[in-house]
Amino acid sequence: MTRPSPRTQLIACLLLAGVGLALFFTGEYRDIPFPAGWVGTFLFVAAVWFFVDALHRIPHSEDEAAIAHGEWQAWIGVAFVGAVIVASLINADAFLLQVPIGQNPDAGAVGRHIGTLFVAWLVLAHVLKQRWSGKVLADERDARIELAASQWARFTTASCVIGIALMLGFSDTDRLREFSYLFIAQTLMLALLLGLWFDQLVAAFLYWRDRRAAAA
Amino acid sequence: MTGTPVGNQIRRLRFGRGEMTQQALADACAVTRQTIIALEAGRYAPSLGLAFCIAYALFVRIEDVFHWSKPE
Fold first, then answer.
1. Residue of chain B whose alpha carbon sits nearest to that of A147
2. For chain B, what is the domain count?
3. Taking CB atoms and an 8 Å limit, are B44 and A141 in contact across chains?
4. CB contact under 8 A, A214 and B41
5. CB-CB under 8 Å, A211 with B32
6. What is the pLDDT of residues A113-162, one digit of tens each?
7. Vertex A138 angle, CA B41 and B48, to 5°
8. How many beta-carbon pairs below 8 A join chains A and B?
9. Which B residues 25-64 touch A at CB under 8 Å?
10. Computed from CA positions of residues A36, A42, A46, A48, in that sequence, does the dihedral angle turn out positive or negative?
11. Residue B67 resides in a domain
């Protein structure tokens, strides 16, 4: 039997990663006799690993060369940080219990899942960097795009923190008692994540806009 | 990085130098090929250092590569 081409393997890995992410996000809520969340996490990480391996074996194409290394990294960042934000929002109720995180296994599980996503992101970013080894990865234009993106990210983070401060400031005492320290900590983490996501999104948009205008 | 008033003749000069590729020019100036693409498309104004480097790589004076178009 002939081995599938690297491109077919790449598409298969992307599909597997999608199934893994779907299990990761929804598995805990399904009444099935196995830990779907963990299976989803494993499937996602394994798919990312094989995706990277297949990516290594595909020769550089002209289309790929037209996209800057910074743009690849920005789009991957948008996907992974977006997944972390969705995971945090879906599991927000796990942080409402008035107990420390050590006594809250649900919050611990969410934290481990999010940690896995971050590790997968780091691995993918590192391998992509290896793929571009020997080439210039960033220059003054990338630095200018990063600066513009980070200004938007700072604005987003500041807006979120002001929003949280106003929410806490204008909540009545009974309502405030419902918020656990863990929930407030998680909300602040979400503000940071939104800032990071916006950073990646603006960078990806600026790269894409320049590329599209140059191709026109 | 919107359109810039700094125009250039990089593309014409590249072809004048034996069809020098964008990648070769990028390597000569330690920038990415995408930056050369953005420069040629008028989407990016280079720093003074990069402008001098490009002129040096194309064996011309800086004013032969770059010109400034006063905005209307």
1. B1
2. 1
3. yes
4. yes
5. no
6. 788 788 878 877 877 777 777 788 889 999 999 999 999 999 999 999 99
7. 60
8. 57
9. 26-27, 30-35, 37-38, 40-41, 43-44, 46-47, 50
10. positive
11. no
Q: Do B32 and A135 touch (CB under 8 A)?
A: yes
Angle formed at CA B7 by CA A213 and CA B50, multiple of 5 degrees:
95
Question: Hey, is the C-beta of B21 within 8 angstroms of any chain A C-beta?
Answer: no
Q: Are B44 and A65 an interchain contact pair (Cβ–Cβ within 8 Å)?
A: no
**Which comes out higher in pLDDT, residue A184 or A7?**
A184
Sign of CA dihedral A101, A107, A108, A111: negative
Residue B50 belongs to domain with CATH number: 1.10.260.40
CB B53 within 8 A of CB B29: yes
Is residue B23 in a domain? yes
- The least confident of A53-62, A116-125, A203-212, B21-30 is A53-62
pLDDT over 90 (residue B57)? yes
pTM for the full predicted model:
0.78
Is residue B44 in a domain? yes
A131 touching chain B per CB within 8 A = no
* Structural tokens at position B31: 């920038």
Q: Which residues pair with B68 in a beta bridge?
A: B6
Could you list the residue range(s) of the whole structural domain that residue B16 is in? 6-59
Q: Is B24 on the interface with A (CB under 8 A)?
A: no
Is residue A166 over pLDDT 90?
yes
Q: What are phi and psi of B8, to 5 degrees?
A: -155, 165
Q: Where are the domains of chain A?
A: 60-210
Which pLDDT score is estimated for A31? Answer: 60
- Min CA distance, B32 vs chain A (Å)? 6
